[in-house]
Write a structure and sequence with these properties.
single chain, mainly beta, 2 helices, about 650 residues, Immunoglobulin-like, Jelly Rolls, six-stranded antiparallel β-sheet, 45 strands
């Protein structure tokens, strides 16, 4: 899955919340070829259905060129975005077109009930026609994140020449009858119709297929793109037209990512609208070869719906080619931004594995919702793009990624499978990418979400921005210059007349943090000059009481609070006594995994007795929150 939607979100902030239209991204499931070494040149591509007949009238199917030097298990394996569930639906169906009779296998992998690789229930019966092949998984239950398909499992392989196999419509149901209705469709390989525009078919053999992205770097991290074999005997307007509707009422600019081996004009056309057709060259000419470039076309002079689009990626007139060329294109997007989509940022992810208990040869993986070549929560071990390199001499493992701007959730894993995560369940780690960066994490240290508020009344607030600066690390930096890091900026809480500014931060780990509030650019805009800094200890997700601008932490920071609050006895059996000489906003007791087990609000100075007899024996944390934002955490032992 791509990050196109994240780009959309960025664009919405620029163009006044006009929703972009994804015309097509040409994505199908990721099919990782299973090959037999350097002599095996088997390939897979998605092509126009060459045999529209019988049980398969689809526009697009997979073409598998099966090399005679391949292995019996030649085919593909795929990590699924949504795992297949065989709890109720036990049968997998695949439509197959073959020129020879041979065994066919399907495999489910990664489920709790164990893997199963099985031959079809009934052997293939026909050649030169589509046939629905069914596989029985009634012995299994639960979800499976990985599937494999082997459409020519002859062992040993006896081919004397390469063959071509087509397959389509991988689906699941609870009916072993061939051609029965689907319950869940794993893949049908359908994309928008691409009607190729040719010269004389006798001389113009131009063609289009969907192929794995040959250059998944920088601007285009997609798994699949369109390959256009451009015949030298073609026409200037060689390309495609498609009965695919777009609406240019609000969104006026069409974007297409293009990879070309030569510089030449590029055109796009919208047709059939009441405002009249328009065929136009790109706003800016192509300026690079051998790399992905976002080409933009201006339709601001038109409005309304258009039922037909056409794309001509090599509009040289007259055409002067002396040999055929190959052009790739991808991601047709309509939005209201005339600027080319920027390339992704280089993000270096590091994790310190010291003390993580890695065994000899055990690998380290990163899994999350990054999309593109990194997948969306691909099971650790199923996507080599997510494997981290290392260790260095300091036990640090590294992965360099190309990511588009946006917010991502992730977690580190040791070994294959989901059981090797840093911890089970929530929270996931979270990071917001706004530029190239290097991020370093410590294995097993949970992130924490903290909300800070500051009352700016009487501060003489002028232009701002109001920001919080400290040693938080990550995207918030370590004492970044005030006003220089957008991640540190606070927003005005409603109603604005309350003069409260707030920020919610996802910190890389629990711990103690020093900070100060600032109003404007530079260090001279702080609450006060010099020490002391404010200080808080964060052991879990926390919303702090409102801090007052300019009120120094002297008397309310942790050191001072420790002298004003007493807890006894410790260890404690039934009743814990609290004596405080200051007002407290809140008293919270949490267990060792961060769950609240007791909460007391608005505590006045004096003595309080807390009955904890119903708590199980063990270690707990008690946290005191001062009315002015100070915080103190102590350990207590219940026996």
């Amino acid at each position: 899955m791509k990050k196109t939607l994240l780009i959309f979100i960025m664009l919405l902030t620029v163009v006044g919340f006009s929703k972009a239209q994804l015309v097509t991204d040409f994505e199908v499931i990721k099919m990782n070829l299973m090959l037999g070494g350097s002599n095996d040149s088997s390939i897979m591509s998605v092509v126009p259905n060459p045999h529209v007949s019988g049980i398969d009238s689809s526009n697009w199917v997979v073409k598998f060129v099966r090399d005679k030097d391949g292995v019996p298990w030649g085919g593909f394996w795929c990590p699924l975005v949504t795992p297949i569930d065989v709890t109720v639906n036990k049968y997998v169906h695949v439509k197959v077109w073959k020129s020879i009779i041979s065994p066919i296998k399907f495999k489910l992998q990664g489920g709790a009930a164990g893997d199963l690789e099985t031959f079809s229930m009934n052997p293939q019966a026909t050649t030169g026609a589509w046939e629905d092949i069914v596989f029985n998984f009634t012995s299994k239950t639960g979800t499976y994140p990985i599937v494999s398909f082997m459409p020519d499992f002859e062992d040993p392989v006896t081919l004397t020449q390469d063959i071509v196999i087509y397959f389509d419509d991988i689906m699941v149901n609870n009916d072993s009858t061939p051609n029965s209705a689907a319950v869940t469709v794993i893949a049908d390989y359908e994309i928008i119709p691409l009607n190729i525009m040719l010269n004389d078919p006798a001389t113009d053999s131009s063609n289009m297929t969907l192929v794995p992205n040959p250059d998944p770097t920088q601007l285009n991290l997609s798994n699949w793109v369109v390959k256009f074999v451009r015949d030298k005997d073609g026409v200037p307007w060689g390309g495609f037209w498609s009965p695919t509707g777009v609406d240019v009422t609000t969104n006026k600019y069409m974007h297409v990512k293009v990879w070309k081996p030569r510089i030449s004009p590029i055109k796009f056309k919208i047709a059939g609208g009441t405002a009249g057709d328009l065929e136009t060259f790109s706003i800016a000419p192509q300026d690079s070869i051998g790399t992905w470039e976002d080409m933009v076309f201006d339709f601001s002079s038109k409005t309304g719906a258009y039922p037909t689009i056409s794309f001509m990626p090599d509009f040289e007139d007259p055409l002067t080619l002396t040999s055929d060329i190959i052009i790739y294109y991808d991601d047709i997007i309509l939005n209201n931004d005339p600027n080319p989509i920027p390339p992704p940022f280089q993000v270096v992810m590091k994790v310190d594995m010291h003390g993580a208990g890695l065994t000899a040869g055990q690998l380290v993986y990163l899994a999350g919702d990054f999309g593109g070549i990194y997948g969306t929560w691909n099971q650790p071990g199923t996507n080599t793009n997510n494997q981290m390199t290392g260790p260095g001499t300091d036990s640090i493992y590294t992965l360099t990624m190309n990511l588009e701007a946006g917010t991502y959730n992730f977690k580190f894993f040791k070994g294959t499978g989901w059981d090797g995560g840093e911890w089970t369940g929530d929270p996931n780690r979270k990071v917001t990418i706004t530029g190239a960066t290097t991020l370093t994490y410590k294995w097993g240290l949970k992130p924490a979400v903290a909300t800070f508020k500051v009352d700016m009344k009487g501060s003489g607030l002028t232009t701002g921005p109001v920001s919080i600066v400290g040693n938080f690390g990550g995207i918030y930096g370590t004492w970044s210059v005030p006003g220089s890091n957008a991640a540190d900026s606070m927003t005005a809480a409603l109603p604005v007349t309350d003069s409260i500014y707030t920020i919610t931060m996802t910190l890389d780990s629990i711990g103690t943090y020093a900070f100060k509030f600032f109003d404007g650019q530079g260090w001279n805009t702080g609450e006060w000059t010099g020490d002391p800094n404010r200080s808080v200890t964060i052991l879990k997700d926390t919303t702090f009481a409102v801090f007052k601008w300019g009120q120094k932490p002297s008397g309310i920071n942790e050191i001072s609070l420790a002298g004003k609050i007493q807890t006894y006895p410790n260890p404690v059996k039934d009743v814990l006594n609290i004596t405080t000489s200051i007002e407290l906003n809140q008293v919270v007791i949490t267990n060792i995994v961060g769950q609240d087990v007791f909460r007391l609000d608005n505590v006045s100075p004096g003595r309080r007795a807390i009955n904890i007899s119903e708590l199980t024996n063990g270690m707990y944390f008690i946290t005191f929150y001062g009315k002015s934002g100070g915080q103190l955490t102590q350990k207590i032992l219940k026996y």
